[in-house]
């Protein structure tokens, strides 16, 4: 029996189907979860996919945080269940305070859509153990509220504890902003993704689920590691 | 019904590119002399029943947990001016 990974759909979520597919490509069972349903259907892990839940009204992720399904996710995440937030899902995780800091409008005010190089800074989390420490990967980035901010104390703490999971590296590979600009959105200390103290909750702005098959996305499969990582984690456990 | 206004602003140390874009547009429109613009949100809450200390405490809780993200934003809570005058009159009438 393989592990079951829940993928939540909020009103306005866009990437739930792609995420379910990525989960299946990695060899896991994908279980659709609905925002109004507190029942997590006994999944072993949960992914909060990208999109514009509740239209990004108030702040991105602010209203999703209070949905019934999130009550269960918060409870289970605190008990150690692996949770991955991608893009809007990352925004939801900061709004719930499962992850520190907050996401703001990109410093150039444009919507970004480009393939983005990242450096894996922590290959020990539940969601990154298929990668090597320091590995460079290329996956799509698409958002307008992608600027990660936190106060200096929190940023120092994240770095000291190795909780920066991925950083923006080098140029983008097409799309906006131009490739000369290595930090695509003004995120402090080039942070693209972080984890909590326990390493079970990870949030990142770029989209690994769009880079799991050669036919689509970047043409590579650099994003698949996030999903095979969780397979490894759950099967080893 | 009484109105309570909650103003939410980005903390001073947080970069506000939207405010900067507004500020940079001003000279092009012929408006000079504005050194800085910061953009925030204003919420108008129509409150059922009296706006007493308990109601204001509840609204502060709403602001702190939901309307503002205190990681990046500060907020203020106030009773709207003419409403405040009405409330004062009502309080006088009661005493």
Automatic annotation (TrEMBL), chain A:
Pathway field of the UniProt record reads: Purine metabolism; IMP biosynthesis via de novo pathway; 5-amino-1-(5-phospho-D-ribosyl)imidazole from N(2)-formyl-N(1)-(5-phospho-D-ribosyl)glycinamide: step 1/2
Ligase as UniProt keyword: yes
Q: Does the keyword ATP-binding apply?
A: yes
Please state the protein's primary subcellular location: cytoplasm
An MF annotation (GO) of this entry: ATP binding
Q: Which UniProt keywords apply?
A: ATP-binding, Cytoplasm, Glutamine amidotransferase, Hydrolase, Ligase, Nucleotide-binding, Purine biosynthesis
Task: Give EC number(s), comma-separated.
Answer: 6.3.5.3, 3.5.1.2
Which PROSITE patterns does the UniProt record give? Answer: GATASE_TYPE_1
Instruction: Please describe the quaternary structure of this protein.
Output: Part of the FGAM synthase complex composed of 1 PurL, 1 PurQ and 2 PurS subunits.
**Per its database record, what is this protein's job?**
Part of the phosphoribosylformylglycinamidine synthase complex involved in the purines biosynthetic pathway. Catalyzes the ATP-dependent conversion of formylglycinamide ribonucleotide (FGAR) and glutamine to yield formylglycinamidine ribonucleotide (FGAM) and glutamate. The FGAM synthase complex is composed of three subunits. PurQ produces an ammonia molecule by converting glutamine to glutamate. PurL transfers the ammonia molecule to FGAR to form FGAM in an ATP-dependent manner.
Protein name, UniProt field: Phosphoribosylformylglycinamidine synthase subunit PurQ
- Species of origin reads Streptomyces bingchenggensis (strain BCW-1)
The lineage, from the top, is: Bacteria, Bacillati, Actinomycetota, Actinomycetes, Kitasatosporales
TrEMBL record, chain B:
One GO MF term, please? phosphoribosylformylglycinamidine synthase activity
InterPro entries in the record? PurS, PurS-like_sf
Signal peptide range in chain numbering = none
Give the Gene3D superfamilies listed for this entry: Phosphoribosylformylglycinamidine synthase subunit PurS (3.30.1280.10)
* Documented EC number(s): 6.3.5.3
Compartments in which it is found: Cytoplasm
Q: Name one Pfam family in it.
A: PurS
Keyword DNA repair on this protein? no
Predominant subcellular localization, coarse grouping: cytoplasm
Describe which pathway this protein belongs to, using the record's wording. Answer: Purine metabolism; IMP biosynthesis via de novo pathway; 5-amino-1-(5-phospho-D-ribosyl)imidazole from N(2)-formyl-N(1)-(5-phospho-D-ribosyl)glycinamide: step 1/2
One GO BP on record is: 'de novo' IMP biosynthetic process
Assembly, in brief, is: Part of the FGAM synthase complex composed of 1 PurL, 1 PurQ and 2 PurS subunits.
The role this protein plays is: Part of the phosphoribosylformylglycinamidine synthase complex involved in the purines biosynthetic pathway. Catalyzes the ATP-dependent conversion of formylglycinamide ribonucleotide (FGAR) and glutamine to yield formylglycinamidine ribonucleotide (FGAM) and glutamate. The FGAM synthase complex is composed of three subunits. PurQ produces an ammonia molecule by converting glutamine to glutamate. PurL transfers the ammonia molecule to FGAR to form FGAM in an ATP-dependent manner.
Q: What protein name applies here? A: Phosphoribosylformylglycinamidine synthase subunit PurS
Provide the taxonomic classification: Bacteria, Bacillati, Actinomycetota, Actinomycetes, Kitasatosporales
Name the gene for this chain.
purS
């Amino acid at each position: 029996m393989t592990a079951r990974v829940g993928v939540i759909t909020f009103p306005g979520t866009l990437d739930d189907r792609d995420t379910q597919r990525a989960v299946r490509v990695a060899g896991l069972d994908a279980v659709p979860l609905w925002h109004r349903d507190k029942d997590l259907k006994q999944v072993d892990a949960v992914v909060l996919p990208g999109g514009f839940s509740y239209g990004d009204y108030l702040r991105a992720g602010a209203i999703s945080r209070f949905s019934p399904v999130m009550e269960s996710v918060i409870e289970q995440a605190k008990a150690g269940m692996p949770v991955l937030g991608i893009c809007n899902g990352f925004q939801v995780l900061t709004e719930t305070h499962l992850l520190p800091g907050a996401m703001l409008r990109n410093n150039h005010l444009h919507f970004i859509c480009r393939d983005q190089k990242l450096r894996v800074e922590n290959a020990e989390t539940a969601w990154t153990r298929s990668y090597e420490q320091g590995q460079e990967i290329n996956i799509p980035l698409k958002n307008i509220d992608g600027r990660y901010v936190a106060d200096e104390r929190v940023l120092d703490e994240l770095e000291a504890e190795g909780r920066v999971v991925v950083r923006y590296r080098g140029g983008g590979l097409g799309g906006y902003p131009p490739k000369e600009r290595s930090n695509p959105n003004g995120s402090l200390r080039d942070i693209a993704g972080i984890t909590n103290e326990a390493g079970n909750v990870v949030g990142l702005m770029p989209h690994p689920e769009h880079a799991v098959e050669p036919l689509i996305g970047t043409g590579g499969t650099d994003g698949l590691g996030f999903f095979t990582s969780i397979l490894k984690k759950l099967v080893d456990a | 019904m009484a109105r309570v206004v909650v103003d939410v602003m980005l903390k001073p140390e947080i970069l506000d590119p939207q405010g900067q874009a507004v500020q940079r547009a001003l000279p092009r429109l012929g408006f000079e002399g504005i050194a800085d613009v910061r953009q925030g949100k204003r919420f108008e809450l129509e409150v059922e029943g009296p706006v007493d200390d308990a109601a204001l405490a509840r609204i502060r809780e709403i602001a702190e947990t939901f309307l503002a993200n205190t990681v990046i934003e500060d907020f203020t809570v106030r009773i709207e001016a003419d409403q405040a005058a009405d409330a004062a009159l009502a309080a006088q009438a009661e005493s």
